[in-house]
Amino acid sequence: MKFDSCQNDTRFNAAEIDALRDELISIRDDVLAYAAKRQSLLQPVHPRYQDSAHNLLHYLALRRHDLRPLQLRLAALGLSSLGRAESHVLATLDAVLEVLCRLSQRQNSSVTQGSGQVDFVRGQQLLVEHTDQLLGSPARERSVRIMVTMPGEAADDYTLVRNLVSCGMDCARINCAHDDLGTWQRVIDHLRRAEAELGRSCRLVMDLAGPKLRTGPIVPRPAVEHVRPRRDRYGRVVASARIWLSAKELAQAAPSPADATLPVPGEWLQRLHHGDRLHITDARGARRKLKIVDVTAVGCWAEAKKSLYVTPGLVLQHRHGNGKVGDFPPSENAIELVIGDHLVLTRDLAPGRPATTDRSGQVLTSAMIGCTIGEVFDDVRPNESIWFDDGKIGGVIERVEHDRLLIRITQASPDGAKLRADRGINLPQSRLRLPALTADDLTDLSFVAEHADVVELSFAGGAADVEQLEEELRRRDSRLPAIVLKIETRRGFEKLPEMLLAAMRWPCCGVMIARGDLAVECGFERLAEVQEEILWICEAAHVPVIWATQVLETLAKQGMPSRAEITDAAMGHRAECVMLNKGRHVLAAVQVLDDILRRMQAHQDKKRTMLRELRLAHALQA
Fold first, then answer.
1. Distance from C-alpha of 462 to C-alpha of 443, rounded to nearest angstrom
2. Percent of the chain with pLDDT over 70
3. N or C, fewer C-beta in 10 Å, the chain?
4. What share of the chain is helix, strand, coil (3-state, %, to 5)?
């Protein structure tokens, strides 16, 4: 269809075309004016990101408008609905305006080369260049990189690291919240050795721990071993309980799985023989018998056909003298909470404890537990929400005192939930004044700056946090590793544009969508829309994104993925990198993710559907 014949086509209303053209010109003028007012923000930006920073401002200005009615009207004319404008905002507006002007047979006097304009090809090119700089060259037939969080055992298992690199790991991540410098160094040594052996490059990413709020310790349960034989559905014993008796002086682990391990005096242990009987009065006062079924140089196996409760100090009676059970660690305790319960969160780290009740079940003293960063007590207010353990338990702060918060539990599983020590705490409605870099982070940063290709800034909450990291890296006179902003709080999400402009002052930067904390902070129901907005904003800035948290998690940990996980992993193709967490089956997870990403590459690029030939389209026979 020729433009000069459009006026004779009833589908093209001249007044509508003029209205659309005028509206787009107005939007374009606003986009340029918005960027012009903020030129001072662009001056410190690194030369590599100057055009990208301009495009980011253009996109922010564009998205200040509700474009939905305009999109429908443009689509009705068969024109671009601006839905893929992220990486080249002005070029998209100008292309649509040019067509509208030709349809209306008017000269397009408004379209001039705007400052910082990025055309269609250059927009995609910039994102590819920045991704290569941050994450390294892509694998063959797969543009999306794979990042893997290194487990602690990678420090002592070179084969594991080598296999991960061989199977497609592009970036190895060390979480500095765990282990120590010696462990990190051994992982790095294994990684560099694997690179040299395989002839593959793998970026080293080190994640600073940041100010992670966690629950404090809990008074442990009494040291009690409940030893039980296996029974069938009718309560009949089908296998005796296996008890490993070891010399307490040696603390020798059981050579095979045991139902209990009891430390006893080594001299007494040497008196036992195969077939001997031991008598014990357990912690309840019940009399029980144990039979010695095997004697080794380092311990003995005993069997029990009835349940018993064993505590340190109980006497094992034997015909050649008695032995006493030695000390063994108390079991981990937990605070059981149901909706309506009260929980006291304390500023100090004195061991917490469950609630105490009277004989009728009425609460005498509410449960309490400490908080690892007591400074947040100065920033919280009554009626603000609080979440524990990645959102498994939720509550409302009812009262704020100097050294304690009174919390009413409002969210828990129907059967109740258990709160344990060292579980995450989120305060999504509170304006916390915590620096992104802790004292421990500053100590770790010297090692990180020396070895890492990429440094991840946890809990980034504003431009000042980014600037502090950049300043600290310069002070160390390091080789300036790339920086990645982890978006894991509501404040971090809200401050993303200003943090991006601060990060773009650095030679190389990226963003991680840390979906675990982010879901708790923003609400699980909002996570999908929040991660979409992060992807859009980062594409406008030509900044690569890492899609992280719980990707193929049940596959990595249990060996079998859920259907929802496969779909989630496929959606990760819209980012530039997908991160897997550690697990026993992480190698299989890398292989599956590699296959998914290769397949998705033929179907989708960011928001654009790729129209490759469909086999299904040939299925209908004439």
1. 22
2. 94
3. C
4. 35, 25, 40
Confirm if 24 and 62 have CB atoms less than 8 A apart. Answer: no
279 by Cβ neighbours in 10 Å (0-12 / 13-18 / 19+) ranks as: middle
- Looking at residue 300, its pLDDT comes to 94
pLDDT of 69 strictly over 50: yes
pLDDT for the residue 109: 60
In whole angstroms, what is the distance from residue 505 CA to residue 548 CA?
Answer: 24
363 forms beta bridges with: 357
Helix axes 89-103, 14-37, angle to 10 degrees: 150
- Let me know how many helices (H) and strands (E) the chain has, helices first: 18, 31
**Count of beta carbons in the 10 Å neighbourhood of residue 353:** 15
Closest by CA position to 183, among listed 156, 149, 210: 156
The single residue listed with the structure tokens 């292989």 is: 591
Residue 276 burial class via C-beta count within 10 angstroms: exposed 0-12, middle 13-18, buried 19 and up: middle
Stretch (H or E) spanning 559? none
Helix/strand/coil for 585: coil
| Helix or strand holding residue 379 (H, E) | none
Q: In which region does residue 82 sit, left (phi positive, over 0), alpha (psi from -120 to 50) or beta (all else)?
A: left
- Measure the CA angle with vertex 437, ends 439 and 542; round to 5°: 155
Q: Are 533 and 563 in contact (CB under 8 A)?
A: no
CA 370 to chain centre: 24
Burial class (CB in 10 A: 0-12, 13-18, 19+), 40: exposed
Q: Which two tokens stand for residue 372?
A: 């690892």
Q: Of all helices (H) and strands (E), which one includes residue 397?
A: strand 393-400
pLDDT in tens, 269-312: 999 999 999 999 999 999 999 999 999 988 999 999 999 999 99
- Among 395, 456, 464, 455, smallest CA distance to 433 is for 464
Length in residues, the chain = 622
d(CA 362, CA 91): 69
In Å, how far are 337, 338, 344, 408 from 415, measured between CA atoms?
Answer: 9, 7, 21, 17
Q: For residue 253, name the pLDDT band (cuts at 50, 70, 90).
A: confident
Q: What's the Rg (C-alpha) of the chain?
A: 31
How far, in Å, CA of 318 to CA of 458, rounded?
59
Helices 68-76 + 14-37 axis angle, to 10 = 140
Cα–Cα dist 454/512, whole Å: 12
- pLDDT(602) > 80: no
- Best-predicted range by mean pLDDT (157-166, 246-255, 524-533): 157-166
Instruction: Report residue 256 as tokens.
Output: 């095979």
Structure tokens at 40: 């001072």
Answer whether residue 402 shows pLDDT above 50.
yes
Torsion of CA 232, 233, 235, 239, to 10 degrees: 10
DSSP helix/strand/coil, 456: strand
558 pLDDT exceeds 80? yes
Q: What is the mean pLDDT of the chain?
A: 91
Residue 476 near residue 511, CB atoms below 8 Å: no
Q: How far apart are the first and last CA of the chain?
A: 31
Amino acid sitting at position 365: T
User: Please, what sign has the CA dihedral across residues 151, 155, 160, 161?
Assistant: positive
User: DSSP letters of 352-364?
Assistant: BB--EE-TTS-EE
